Amino acid sequence: MTDNKKVQPLQAVKGMNDILPPESARWESLEATMRGVLARYGYANVRVPIVEPTALFVRGIGEVTDIVEKEMYAFEDRADKHGQAEHLALRPEGTAGVVRAMIEHSYLRDSPRRLYYIGPMFRREKPQKGRYRQFHQMGIEALGFAGPDVDAEVILLARTLWRELGLKEGEDVTLEINCLGQPDERRAHREALVAHLEQHRDVLDEEARARMYSNPLRVLDTKNPAMQAMAEGAPKLLDFLGEASLAHFNGVKALLDAVGLAYRINPRLVRGLDYYNLTVFEWVTDKLGAQGTVCAGGRYDGLVEQLGGKPTPAVGFGMGLERLLLLLETLTLRQPAAAPDAYAVVPEPADLPRILPVLEALRAAGIAVQMHAGGGSFKSQFKKADASGARFALVFGADELARGEVGVKPLREAGEQVFMPAYSTVALADKLRTA
Ligand code: ATP
Ligand code: MG
Protein backbone atom coordinates (compact mmCIF):
# COMPACT_ATOMS: atom_id res chain seq x y z
CA MET A 1 0.00 0.00 0.00
CA THR A 2 1.33 3.41 -0.91
CA ASP A 3 0.10 6.75 0.34
CA ASN A 4 -1.10 8.09 -2.97
CA LYS A 5 -2.90 4.98 -4.27
CA LYS A 6 -6.49 4.63 -3.21
CA VAL A 7 -7.26 1.12 -1.99
CA GLN A 8 -10.07 -0.54 -3.97
CA PRO A 9 -12.74 -1.68 -1.52
CA LEU A 10 -13.65 -5.35 -1.72
CA GLN A 11 -17.18 -6.62 -2.07
CA ALA A 12 -19.08 -9.53 -0.64
CA VAL A 13 -19.32 -12.71 -2.70
CA LYS A 14 -22.23 -12.66 -5.15
CA GLY A 15 -25.36 -14.15 -3.62
CA MET A 16 -24.02 -13.81 -0.09
CA ASN A 17 -25.59 -11.02 1.88
CA ASP A 18 -24.64 -8.81 4.76
CA ILE A 19 -27.43 -8.57 7.30
CA LEU A 20 -27.12 -5.20 8.99
CA PRO A 21 -29.25 -3.09 11.32
CA PRO A 22 -32.14 -2.44 11.19
CA GLU A 23 -32.74 -5.61 9.12
CA SER A 24 -30.76 -7.72 11.60
CA ALA A 25 -33.33 -6.86 14.29
CA ARG A 26 -36.00 -8.59 12.21
CA TRP A 27 -33.78 -11.67 12.09
CA GLU A 28 -33.22 -11.69 15.82
CA SER A 29 -36.90 -11.27 16.46
CA LEU A 30 -37.77 -14.12 14.07
CA GLU A 31 -35.18 -16.39 15.64
CA ALA A 32 -36.39 -15.57 19.15
CA THR A 33 -39.96 -16.46 18.16
CA MET A 34 -38.69 -19.71 16.65
CA ARG A 35 -36.70 -20.67 19.73
CA GLY A 36 -39.76 -20.08 21.89
CA VAL A 37 -41.94 -22.36 19.76
CA LEU A 38 -39.22 -25.03 19.50
CA ALA A 39 -38.78 -25.12 23.26
CA ARG A 40 -42.50 -25.64 23.78
CA TYR A 41 -42.45 -28.68 21.50
CA GLY A 42 -39.37 -30.06 23.28
CA TYR A 43 -36.80 -29.57 20.53
CA ALA A 44 -33.18 -29.03 21.65
CA ASN A 45 -30.55 -27.03 19.83
CA VAL A 46 -27.60 -28.65 18.00
CA ARG A 47 -24.68 -26.75 16.51
CA VAL A 48 -22.65 -28.71 14.03
CA PRO A 49 -19.84 -27.57 11.68
CA ILE A 50 -20.46 -25.61 8.51
CA VAL A 51 -17.72 -27.57 6.72
CA GLU A 52 -18.09 -31.33 6.43
CA PRO A 53 -16.46 -34.08 4.34
CA THR A 54 -17.88 -33.83 0.80
CA ALA A 55 -18.69 -37.54 0.98
CA LEU A 56 -21.26 -36.88 3.72
CA PHE A 57 -23.45 -34.89 1.35
CA VAL A 58 -22.84 -37.17 -1.63
CA ARG A 59 -23.99 -40.11 0.50
CA GLY A 60 -26.66 -38.26 2.40
CA ILE A 61 -28.30 -36.18 -0.31
CA GLY A 62 -27.66 -38.39 -3.32
CA GLU A 63 -25.35 -38.11 -6.28
CA VAL A 64 -28.05 -37.39 -8.86
CA THR A 65 -29.45 -34.24 -7.28
CA ASP A 66 -29.20 -30.58 -8.18
CA ILE A 67 -27.42 -29.90 -4.93
CA VAL A 68 -24.62 -32.41 -5.35
CA GLU A 69 -24.32 -32.17 -9.13
CA LYS A 70 -24.40 -28.41 -9.51
CA GLU A 71 -24.80 -26.41 -6.35
CA MET A 72 -22.33 -27.58 -3.75
CA TYR A 73 -19.29 -25.55 -2.75
CA ALA A 74 -16.84 -28.42 -2.59
CA PHE A 75 -13.07 -28.10 -2.58
CA GLU A 76 -9.90 -29.94 -1.86
CA ASP A 77 -8.16 -28.82 1.29
CA ARG A 78 -4.43 -28.25 1.42
CA ALA A 79 -2.39 -31.43 1.50
CA ASP A 80 -0.98 -32.56 4.82
CA LYS A 81 2.62 -33.66 5.24
CA HIS A 82 1.82 -37.05 3.71
CA GLY A 83 0.44 -35.38 0.62
CA GLN A 84 -3.14 -36.29 1.55
CA ALA A 85 -5.80 -33.67 0.98
CA GLU A 86 -9.32 -33.85 2.39
CA HIS A 87 -12.36 -33.26 0.19
CA LEU A 88 -14.52 -30.76 2.04
CA ALA A 89 -17.78 -28.95 1.35
CA LEU A 90 -19.73 -26.04 2.76
CA ARG A 91 -22.95 -27.57 3.98
CA PRO A 92 -25.82 -27.14 1.50
CA GLU A 93 -28.39 -28.36 4.06
CA GLY A 94 -28.53 -29.32 7.71
CA THR A 95 -29.86 -32.85 8.02
CA ALA A 96 -26.79 -34.81 6.93
CA GLY A 97 -24.52 -33.05 9.43
CA VAL A 98 -26.95 -33.49 12.31
CA VAL A 99 -27.35 -37.19 11.54
CA ARG A 100 -23.57 -37.61 11.25
CA ALA A 101 -23.12 -35.99 14.67
CA MET A 102 -25.81 -38.18 16.25
CA ILE A 103 -24.12 -41.33 14.93
CA GLU A 104 -20.62 -40.14 15.85
CA HIS A 105 -21.60 -39.42 19.45
CA SER A 106 -23.90 -42.44 19.84
CA TYR A 107 -26.79 -40.12 20.63
CA LEU A 108 -29.44 -42.39 19.20
CA ARG A 109 -28.66 -45.40 21.35
CA ASP A 110 -30.90 -44.87 24.34
CA SER A 111 -33.72 -42.60 23.41
CA PRO A 112 -35.21 -40.77 20.50
CA ARG A 113 -34.18 -37.16 19.95
CA ARG A 114 -35.95 -33.98 19.03
CA LEU A 115 -33.41 -31.52 17.64
CA TYR A 116 -33.18 -28.21 15.81
CA TYR A 117 -30.57 -26.00 14.22
CA ILE A 118 -30.50 -22.47 12.85
CA GLY A 119 -27.70 -21.36 10.57
CA PRO A 120 -26.25 -20.61 7.14
CA MET A 121 -26.33 -23.04 4.20
CA PHE A 122 -24.49 -22.69 0.89
CA ARG A 123 -25.59 -23.49 -2.65
CA ARG A 124 -24.15 -22.16 -5.88
CA GLU A 125 -27.45 -21.15 -7.46
CA LYS A 126 -28.40 -18.23 -9.65
CA PRO A 127 -29.05 -15.50 -7.10
CA GLN A 128 -32.50 -13.92 -7.23
CA LYS A 129 -35.16 -12.81 -4.82
CA GLY A 130 -35.61 -15.58 -2.26
CA ARG A 131 -32.69 -17.58 -3.67
CA TYR A 132 -29.17 -16.91 -2.51
CA ARG A 133 -25.79 -18.63 -2.36
CA GLN A 134 -25.53 -18.22 1.37
CA PHE A 135 -28.96 -18.53 2.94
CA HIS A 136 -30.25 -19.54 6.32
CA GLN A 137 -32.39 -22.39 7.50
CA MET A 138 -34.08 -23.34 10.68
CA GLY A 139 -34.49 -27.07 10.60
CA ILE A 140 -35.80 -29.72 12.95
CA GLU A 141 -35.12 -33.44 13.09
CA ALA A 142 -37.11 -35.94 15.13
CA LEU A 143 -34.96 -39.07 15.25
CA GLY A 144 -36.13 -42.46 16.47
CA PHE A 145 -39.88 -41.99 16.00
CA ALA A 146 -41.68 -44.08 13.40
CA GLY A 147 -44.75 -41.83 13.17
CA PRO A 148 -47.28 -40.90 11.96
CA ASP A 149 -47.83 -39.02 15.24
CA VAL A 150 -44.51 -37.23 15.06
CA ASP A 151 -45.02 -36.45 11.35
CA ALA A 152 -48.08 -34.51 12.41
CA GLU A 153 -46.09 -32.91 15.23
CA VAL A 154 -43.40 -31.44 12.98
CA ILE A 155 -46.05 -30.08 10.63
CA LEU A 156 -47.93 -28.57 13.55
CA LEU A 157 -44.81 -27.00 14.99
CA ALA A 158 -44.54 -25.02 11.77
CA ARG A 159 -48.19 -24.02 12.00
CA THR A 160 -47.67 -22.71 15.53
CA LEU A 161 -44.77 -20.66 14.27
CA TRP A 162 -46.89 -19.15 11.47
CA ARG A 163 -49.51 -18.22 14.01
CA GLU A 164 -47.00 -16.54 16.29
CA LEU A 165 -45.63 -14.60 13.34
CA GLY A 166 -49.08 -13.45 12.32
CA LEU A 167 -49.20 -15.53 9.11
CA LYS A 168 -52.57 -17.00 8.21
CA GLU A 169 -52.72 -20.63 7.16
CA GLY A 170 -54.73 -21.20 4.02
CA GLU A 171 -54.07 -17.60 2.99
CA ASP A 172 -50.43 -16.64 3.47
CA VAL A 173 -49.12 -20.19 3.72
CA THR A 174 -50.74 -23.46 2.76
CA LEU A 175 -49.78 -27.02 3.47
CA GLU A 176 -49.19 -29.58 0.72
CA ILE A 177 -48.56 -33.20 1.58
CA ASN A 178 -47.83 -36.43 -0.22
CA CYS A 179 -46.72 -39.94 0.59
CA LEU A 180 -43.63 -41.35 -1.17
CA GLY A 181 -44.15 -44.88 0.11
CA GLN A 182 -41.30 -47.33 0.55
CA PRO A 183 -38.43 -48.31 -1.77
CA ASP A 184 -40.18 -51.36 -3.29
CA GLU A 185 -43.32 -49.36 -4.02
CA ARG A 186 -41.24 -46.64 -5.54
CA ARG A 187 -39.48 -49.20 -7.71
CA ALA A 188 -42.74 -50.43 -9.20
CA HIS A 189 -43.89 -46.87 -9.76
CA ARG A 190 -40.54 -45.98 -11.22
CA GLU A 191 -40.84 -48.64 -13.91
CA ALA A 192 -44.21 -47.27 -14.94
CA LEU A 193 -42.79 -43.76 -14.84
CA VAL A 194 -39.81 -44.55 -17.03
CA ALA A 195 -42.21 -46.06 -19.56
CA HIS A 196 -44.25 -42.84 -19.46
CA LEU A 197 -41.14 -40.71 -19.93
CA GLU A 198 -40.05 -42.85 -22.87
CA GLN A 199 -43.46 -42.30 -24.45
CA HIS A 200 -43.04 -38.52 -24.09
CA ARG A 201 -39.39 -38.29 -24.96
CA ASP A 202 -40.09 -35.47 -27.46
CA VAL A 203 -41.17 -32.97 -24.74
CA LEU A 204 -38.33 -33.74 -22.35
CA ASP A 205 -35.60 -31.14 -21.99
CA GLU A 206 -31.95 -32.03 -21.96
CA GLU A 207 -31.76 -32.32 -18.20
CA ALA A 208 -34.81 -34.58 -18.08
CA ARG A 209 -33.37 -36.88 -20.72
CA ALA A 210 -30.14 -37.08 -18.81
CA ARG A 211 -32.02 -38.05 -15.67
CA MET A 212 -34.92 -40.14 -16.90
CA TYR A 213 -33.16 -43.38 -16.02
CA SER A 214 -30.93 -42.27 -13.16
CA ASN A 215 -33.66 -40.38 -11.28
CA PRO A 216 -37.01 -40.31 -13.10
CA LEU A 217 -38.93 -39.10 -10.05
CA ARG A 218 -36.87 -35.93 -10.08
CA VAL A 219 -37.88 -35.27 -13.69
CA LEU A 220 -41.40 -34.55 -12.37
CA ASP A 221 -39.95 -31.94 -9.99
CA THR A 222 -39.22 -29.76 -13.06
CA LYS A 223 -39.90 -26.06 -13.28
CA ASN A 224 -39.93 -26.20 -17.12
CA PRO A 225 -43.42 -25.07 -18.32
CA ALA A 226 -43.13 -27.16 -21.50
CA MET A 227 -43.01 -30.30 -19.40
CA GLN A 228 -45.91 -29.57 -17.03
CA ALA A 229 -48.57 -31.47 -19.02
CA MET A 230 -46.31 -34.50 -19.32
CA ALA A 231 -45.67 -34.35 -15.57
CA GLU A 232 -49.38 -33.98 -14.76
CA GLY A 233 -50.19 -37.09 -16.77
CA ALA A 234 -47.46 -39.23 -15.26
CA PRO A 235 -48.35 -42.36 -13.24
CA LYS A 236 -49.04 -41.40 -9.62
CA LEU A 237 -47.02 -42.97 -6.88
CA LEU A 238 -50.11 -42.94 -4.65
CA ASP A 239 -51.61 -45.63 -6.90
CA PHE A 240 -48.66 -47.89 -6.18
CA LEU A 241 -48.71 -47.68 -2.38
CA GLY A 242 -49.28 -50.80 -0.28
CA GLU A 243 -51.41 -51.11 2.83
CA ALA A 244 -48.82 -50.07 5.40
CA SER A 245 -47.83 -46.93 3.52
CA LEU A 246 -51.47 -45.97 3.01
CA ALA A 247 -52.17 -46.55 6.69
CA HIS A 248 -49.28 -44.26 7.60
CA PHE A 249 -50.51 -41.57 5.23
CA ASN A 250 -54.05 -41.89 6.53
CA GLY A 251 -52.71 -41.65 10.07
CA VAL A 252 -51.02 -38.34 9.34
CA LYS A 253 -54.11 -37.00 7.59
CA ALA A 254 -56.38 -38.04 10.46
CA LEU A 255 -54.25 -36.17 12.98
CA LEU A 256 -54.15 -33.05 10.82
CA ASP A 257 -57.91 -33.28 10.44
CA ALA A 258 -58.26 -33.62 14.21
CA VAL A 259 -56.57 -30.27 14.78
CA GLY A 260 -58.40 -28.61 11.90
CA LEU A 261 -55.36 -28.13 9.72
CA ALA A 262 -56.34 -27.98 6.05
CA TYR A 263 -53.95 -29.47 3.50
CA ARG A 264 -53.79 -30.18 -0.20
CA ILE A 265 -52.62 -33.59 -1.35
CA ASN A 266 -50.08 -32.95 -4.09
CA PRO A 267 -49.17 -36.22 -5.81
CA ARG A 268 -46.30 -34.50 -7.62
CA LEU A 269 -44.60 -33.40 -4.44
CA VAL A 270 -41.35 -35.37 -4.43
CA ARG A 271 -38.75 -33.07 -2.82
CA GLY A 272 -35.33 -32.36 -4.24
CA LEU A 273 -33.47 -34.67 -1.92
CA ASP A 274 -33.21 -38.41 -2.46
CA TYR A 275 -33.56 -39.69 1.05
CA TYR A 276 -37.24 -39.11 1.76
CA ASN A 277 -39.86 -41.84 2.22
CA LEU A 278 -43.52 -41.94 3.32
CA THR A 279 -44.65 -38.47 4.41
CA VAL A 280 -43.38 -35.42 2.51
CA PHE A 281 -44.77 -31.94 2.89
CA GLU A 282 -44.24 -28.33 1.94
CA TRP A 283 -45.59 -25.11 3.33
CA VAL A 284 -45.97 -22.88 0.28
CA THR A 285 -46.97 -19.31 -0.43
CA ASP A 286 -48.16 -17.65 -3.63
CA LYS A 287 -46.68 -14.32 -2.54
CA LEU A 288 -43.03 -14.96 -3.44
CA GLY A 289 -43.22 -15.93 -7.12
CA ALA A 290 -41.18 -18.98 -8.09
CA GLN A 291 -39.52 -19.09 -4.66
CA GLY A 292 -42.78 -20.16 -3.03
CA THR A 293 -41.62 -22.93 -0.71
CA VAL A 294 -41.05 -21.55 2.76
CA CYS A 295 -40.70 -24.84 4.60
CA ALA A 296 -40.09 -28.31 3.23
CA GLY A 297 -39.65 -31.64 4.90
CA GLY A 298 -40.68 -35.19 5.39
CA ARG A 299 -39.70 -38.60 6.61
CA TYR A 300 -36.28 -40.10 5.86
CA ASP A 301 -36.19 -43.46 7.57
CA GLY A 302 -33.28 -44.74 5.49
CA LEU A 303 -30.80 -41.94 6.07
CA VAL A 304 -29.29 -42.87 9.44
CA GLU A 305 -28.45 -46.34 8.18
CA GLN A 306 -27.18 -44.95 4.89
CA LEU A 307 -24.74 -42.81 6.86
CA GLY A 308 -23.48 -45.77 8.90
CA GLY A 309 -25.79 -45.74 11.93
CA LYS A 310 -28.32 -48.27 13.18
CA PRO A 311 -31.64 -48.15 11.30
CA THR A 312 -33.53 -45.24 12.87
CA PRO A 313 -36.77 -43.72 11.66
CA ALA A 314 -36.64 -39.97 11.23
CA VAL A 315 -38.67 -36.98 10.13
CA GLY A 316 -37.89 -33.27 9.87
CA PHE A 317 -38.05 -30.09 7.86
CA GLY A 318 -35.95 -27.18 6.66
CA MET A 319 -37.30 -23.65 6.61
CA GLY A 320 -35.80 -20.78 4.61
CA LEU A 321 -35.39 -17.74 6.83
CA GLU A 322 -34.88 -15.26 3.97
CA ARG A 323 -38.12 -16.40 2.32
CA LEU A 324 -39.97 -16.23 5.59
CA LEU A 325 -38.76 -12.68 6.21
CA LEU A 326 -39.68 -11.68 2.64
CA LEU A 327 -43.11 -13.13 3.18
CA LEU A 328 -43.55 -11.25 6.44
CA GLU A 329 -42.44 -8.09 4.67
CA THR A 330 -45.04 -8.44 1.90
CA LEU A 331 -47.70 -8.64 4.56
CA THR A 332 -46.22 -5.71 6.49
CA LEU A 333 -47.16 -7.69 9.52
CA ARG A 334 -45.40 -7.69 12.77
CA GLN A 335 -42.63 -5.24 11.98
CA PRO A 336 -40.62 -5.94 15.09
CA ALA A 337 -40.09 -3.03 17.39
CA ALA A 338 -36.55 -2.13 16.48
CA ALA A 339 -37.23 1.31 17.94
CA PRO A 340 -36.31 1.93 21.57
CA ASP A 341 -38.94 2.93 24.09
CA ALA A 342 -37.01 6.06 24.93
CA TYR A 343 -34.08 8.11 23.70
CA ALA A 344 -31.99 9.88 26.32
CA VAL A 345 -31.02 13.42 25.38
CA VAL A 346 -27.84 14.42 27.20
CA PRO A 347 -27.35 18.18 26.76
CA GLU A 348 -24.31 18.22 29.01
CA PRO A 349 -22.06 15.13 28.86
CA ALA A 350 -20.48 16.22 32.13
CA ASP A 351 -23.82 15.33 33.82
CA LEU A 352 -23.56 11.68 32.74
CA PRO A 353 -22.48 10.41 36.16
CA ARG A 354 -25.96 11.48 37.38
CA ILE A 355 -27.77 10.31 34.22
CA LEU A 356 -26.28 6.90 33.57
CA PRO A 357 -27.62 5.32 36.79
CA VAL A 358 -31.15 6.32 35.74
CA LEU A 359 -30.71 4.73 32.32
CA GLU A 360 -29.30 1.56 33.85
CA ALA A 361 -32.19 1.31 36.29
CA LEU A 362 -34.70 1.72 33.44
CA ARG A 363 -32.98 -0.99 31.40
CA ALA A 364 -32.97 -3.29 34.40
CA ALA A 365 -36.73 -2.66 34.58
CA GLY A 366 -37.08 -3.85 30.97
CA ILE A 367 -37.22 -0.50 29.19
CA ALA A 368 -35.24 -0.14 25.96
CA VAL A 369 -33.37 3.14 26.32
CA GLN A 370 -30.99 4.42 23.75
CA MET A 371 -28.48 6.91 25.14
CA HIS A 372 -27.31 9.80 23.05
CA ALA A 373 -23.55 9.38 22.82
CA GLY A 374 -20.97 11.79 21.48
CA GLY A 375 -22.40 15.15 22.57
CA GLY A 376 -23.71 17.74 20.13
CA SER A 377 -26.26 20.51 20.29
CA PHE A 378 -29.62 20.06 21.97
CA LYS A 379 -31.31 20.44 18.60
CA SER A 380 -29.21 17.79 16.86
CA GLN A 381 -29.78 15.39 19.74
CA PHE A 382 -33.51 15.87 19.43
CA LYS A 383 -33.31 15.12 15.74
CA LYS A 384 -31.53 11.86 16.54
CA ALA A 385 -34.14 11.07 19.16
CA ASP A 386 -36.87 11.48 16.57
CA ALA A 387 -35.02 9.44 13.93
CA SER A 388 -34.53 6.58 16.39
CA GLY A 389 -38.26 5.91 16.31
CA ALA A 390 -38.43 6.09 20.11
CA ARG A 391 -41.80 6.88 21.64
CA PHE A 392 -40.30 9.25 24.18
CA ALA A 393 -37.34 11.55 24.57
CA LEU A 394 -35.91 11.69 28.05
CA VAL A 395 -34.45 15.14 28.53
CA PHE A 396 -31.79 15.37 31.20
CA GLY A 397 -31.37 19.16 31.21
CA ALA A 398 -29.31 20.85 33.92
CA ASP A 399 -32.34 22.50 35.60
CA GLU A 400 -34.31 19.25 35.72
CA LEU A 401 -31.35 17.33 37.08
CA ALA A 402 -30.86 19.95 39.79
CA ARG A 403 -34.45 19.16 40.89
CA GLY A 404 -33.82 15.39 40.60
CA GLU A 405 -36.19 15.26 37.62
CA VAL A 406 -36.20 14.32 33.98
CA GLY A 407 -38.33 15.69 31.16
CA VAL A 408 -40.43 13.07 29.36
CA LYS A 409 -41.49 14.25 25.91
CA PRO A 410 -43.72 12.17 23.63
CA LEU A 411 -42.26 11.92 20.12
CA ARG A 412 -44.90 9.85 18.33
CA GLU A 413 -48.09 11.45 19.57
CA ALA A 414 -49.26 14.86 20.63
CA GLY A 415 -48.62 15.87 24.21
CA GLU A 416 -46.58 18.18 26.34
CA GLN A 417 -43.35 17.33 28.05
CA VAL A 418 -43.93 16.27 31.64
CA PHE A 419 -41.41 16.23 34.43
CA MET A 420 -40.97 13.14 36.54
CA PRO A 421 -38.69 12.17 39.42
CA ALA A 422 -35.59 10.66 37.81
CA TYR A 423 -34.44 8.64 40.76
CA SER A 424 -37.55 6.64 41.57
CA THR A 425 -37.52 4.65 38.37
CA VAL A 426 -40.64 2.63 39.10
CA ALA A 427 -43.02 5.38 38.06
CA LEU A 428 -40.80 6.45 35.21
CA ALA A 429 -40.53 2.92 33.85
CA ASP A 430 -44.33 2.59 34.07
CA LYS A 431 -44.83 5.77 32.10
CA LEU A 432 -42.43 4.64 29.37
CA ARG A 433 -43.93 1.18 29.23
CA THR A 434 -47.60 1.91 28.96
CA ALA A 435 -48.42 5.50 28.03
P1 ATP B 1 -36.25 -24.93 -4.28
O1 ATP B 1 -37.14 -25.89 -4.98
O2 ATP B 1 -36.88 -23.58 -4.02
O3 ATP B 1 -34.88 -24.82 -4.89
P2 ATP B 1 -35.25 -26.91 -2.44
O4 ATP B 1 -36.11 -28.07 -2.68
O5 ATP B 1 -33.90 -26.88 -3.06
O6 ATP B 1 -36.03 -25.54 -2.81
P3 ATP B 1 -34.74 -27.60 0.33
O7 ATP B 1 -33.43 -28.22 0.03
O8 ATP B 1 -35.88 -28.45 0.67
O9 ATP B 1 -35.13 -26.62 -0.87
O10 ATP B 1 -34.54 -26.50 1.48
C1 ATP B 1 -35.57 -26.17 2.41
C2 ATP B 1 -35.93 -24.71 2.31
O11 ATP B 1 -34.79 -23.87 2.32
C3 ATP B 1 -36.65 -24.31 1.03
O12 ATP B 1 -37.98 -24.61 1.11
C4 ATP B 1 -36.41 -22.81 1.01
O13 ATP B 1 -37.32 -22.15 1.88
C5 ATP B 1 -35.02 -22.70 1.55
N1 ATP B 1 -34.03 -22.59 0.46
C6 ATP B 1 -33.52 -23.58 -0.30
N2 ATP B 1 -32.60 -23.11 -1.15
C7 ATP B 1 -32.52 -21.76 -0.93
C8 ATP B 1 -31.73 -20.70 -1.48
N3 ATP B 1 -30.82 -20.92 -2.43
N4 ATP B 1 -31.92 -19.44 -1.01
C9 ATP B 1 -32.83 -19.21 -0.03
N5 ATP B 1 -33.59 -20.16 0.53
C10 ATP B 1 -33.44 -21.44 0.10
MG1 MG C 1 -33.13 -25.96 -4.82
UniProtKB/TrEMBL annotation:
Keywords: Aminoacyl-tRNA synthetase, ATP-binding, Cytoplasm, Ligase, Nucleotide-binding, Protein biosynthesis. It catalyses: tRNA(His) + L-histidine + ATP = L-histidyl-tRNA(His) + AMP + diphosphate + H(+). It is found in: Cytoplasm. It holds the Pfam family tRNA-synt_His. Residues 27-347 form the Aminoacyl-transfer RNA synthetases class-II family profile domain. It is an enzyme of class 6 (ligase). Its EC number is 6.1.1.21. It comes from the Bacteria. One of its GO terms (molecular function) is histidine-tRNA ligase activity. Gene3D superfamilies: Anticodon-binding domain, Bira Bifunctional Protein, Domain 2. Belongs to the class-II aminoacyl-tRNA synthetase family. HAMAP family: His_tRNA_synth (MF_00127). PANTHER family: HISTIDINE--TRNA LIGASE, MITOCHONDRIAL-RELATED, HISTIDYL-TRNA SYNTHETASE. This is Histidine--tRNA ligase. It comes from Pelomonas caseinilytica.
